[in-house]
Amino acid sequence: MTKSREIRLKSRPAGTPDASNFELATVDVGSPGAGEVLVRNSFMSVDPYMRGRMYDRASYVPPFQVGAVLQGGAIGEVVASGAEGFAPGDLVSSMFGWREAFVAPAAALEKLPRQAGVPDQAFLGVLGMPGLTGYAGLREIGRPKPGETVFVSGGAGAVGSVVAQVAKIMGCTVIATAGTDAKCDWLRARGIDHAINYKTCGNLLDAVRSAAQANGNNGGIDVYFDNVGGEHLEVAIEVARPFARFAECGMISGYNSMEAIPGPRNIIQVVGKSLCIRGFIVSEFAGLRPQFFADMMGWIAAGQLAWEETVFEGVDKAPDAFIGLFSGSNTGKMLVKL
Asked: How far apart are CA 219 and CA 238, in angstroms?
């Protein structure tokens, strides 16, 4: 019998989550039966989308249940296996995060190849769901062309940092926002043309417009990759050139709002500028994974793409890591080491 600590949803948050919404429990995990695998997690992911699952409402994924262990991306090693194709020591990914160990059907796991020079936890970030989200959303919806200007909000986050760097690899001028000077410095070190601290820049519209004008293009942007929503979305509409493409990935500025959020005040410009604004969920681009892995591994090997991680230690710190997403305390992927 294996002991495992896990985090459960104690109550549904009202506004920004806090520690009182979570509880730590210890459970016994049995041995795997036929077709099952016992896994001990090494890293788990916390992601902004999880906030939506804490509401009791229908969505593209079922809501978390009060009193039940939470779920999310995780990687770990097989401890014991009753399933063909899985052996002790294999690296696997699953959606059984927020816990130290578990038994699950083999069909719920994906065996991962270890990559020289790439840490295992990269499969939760740059080579995982956030990386594919940025890669696919930029490529399939943004469709940037060499010489165009790409604007990405949340540019130092797990998704935004991939978007910013891939856009540069594709020959674009990149404008990115972040919430600290250190994050902006990291973006500039990665070759991003304009990194704007949205908390200290004064007028965000003026800052983005000035950056766009510095690159010609009639002072406009051709692609906007949205992770933030709110004021950032209004600014993007304002500085968009005709026929600009907007990839709507997330709107973290409104995830904890207790009231209906008004739409962009300048939404009428969508008509006059013939803008294409499209939301997406990464699962619709699952078919791109082989190409995604090939491209990303090539760029990593060539030194064209890097990533940052913010790591909390211990499953008991998972709520703190999750709550930290909403104050911007992470640079790059937010992880919990188990």
From this structure: 11
CATH of the domain spanning 129-283, picked from 3.40.30.10, 3.30.2310.20, 3.40.640.10, 3.40.50.720: 3.40.50.720
What residue ranges of the chain are covered by domains with CATH 3.90.180.10?
A: 2-125+308-337
DSSP-assigned letters across all residues of 54-116: GSSS--SSPPPPTTSBP-B-EEEEEEEE-STT--TT-EEEESB-SBSEEEEEGGG-EE---BT
Rounded CA-CA distance 224/202 in Å is 21
- pLDDT averaged over the chain? 95
Q: What angle do CA 245, 135, 278 make, to 5 degrees?
A: 30
Q: How far is CA 170 from CA 144, 263, 295, 334, in A?
A: 7, 32, 12, 26
pLDDT in tens, 113-144: 888 788 999 999 999 999 999 999 999 999 99
Q: Rounding to the nearest 10 degrees, give the CA dihedral for residues 13, 19, 22, 27.
A: 180
- pLDDT for position 22: 98
Give the model's pLDDT for residue 217. 56
* Number of neighbouring beta carbons within 10 Å of residue 88: 11
Rounded distance between C-alpha atoms, residue 336 and residue 97, angstroms: 10
DSSP character for 252? G
Please name which of 165, 170, 164, 166 lies closest in space to residue 145, comparing C-alpha atoms: 170
CA distance 143 to 3: 48
Q: Can you tell me whether residue 38 is helix, strand or coil?
A: strand
CATH topology of domain 2-125+308-337: Quinone Oxidoreductase; Chain A, domain 1 (3.90.180)
**Boundaries of CATH 3.40.50.720 in the chain?**
129-283
Place of tokens 């991003």: 192
